[in-house]
Amino acid sequence: MSKFKIGAGGGSVSEKPASAAEFVSGAAMVKSQAGSRPLKPIRLNLDLDPNIHRQLKLRAVENGISIAQLVRALITRELG
Predict the structure, then answer these.
(1) How far apart are CA 18 and CA 41, in angstroms?
(2) Is the CB of residue 15 less than 8 Å from the CB of residue 8?
(3) What is the per-residue pLDDT for 40?
(4) DSSP 1-59
(5) I want to staple 8 with a disulfide (CB 3.0 to 4.6 A). Which of 3, 26, 51, 52 is the partner?
(6) Which letter, b or e, does each residue of 36-46 get, where b requires 16 or more Cβ atoms within 10 Å of its Cβ?
(7) Are 13 and 6 in contact (CB under 8 A)?
(8) pLDDT band with cut points at 50, 70 and 90 for residue 37
(9) pLDDT tens, 5-14?
(10) Full DSSP string of 45-72
């Protein structure tokens, strides 16, 4: 079974989760993370307009941090 096929509560992939919370909790874990291992960060890939990327890069440099750190801080602030 592929670690990318996530079934809610260990069930079949074709089963629909009962709630949004069940879906999110199922998506947060893959088979390789089951057990006593600490959770791994989830990788996010997205396409950006080159001008937005340039602005992010400049802001990150101004603050002495990486773009990843800046984006994480912006997401945390937004979801606060």
Answers:
(1) 25
(2) yes
(3) 87
(4) --TT---GGG--TTSPPSSHHHHHHHHT--GGG-SSSPPPPPP------HHHHHHHHHH
(5) 26
(6) eeeeeeeeeee
(7) yes
(8) confident
(9) 555 555 445 5
(10) -----HHHHHHHHHHHHHHTS-HHHHHH
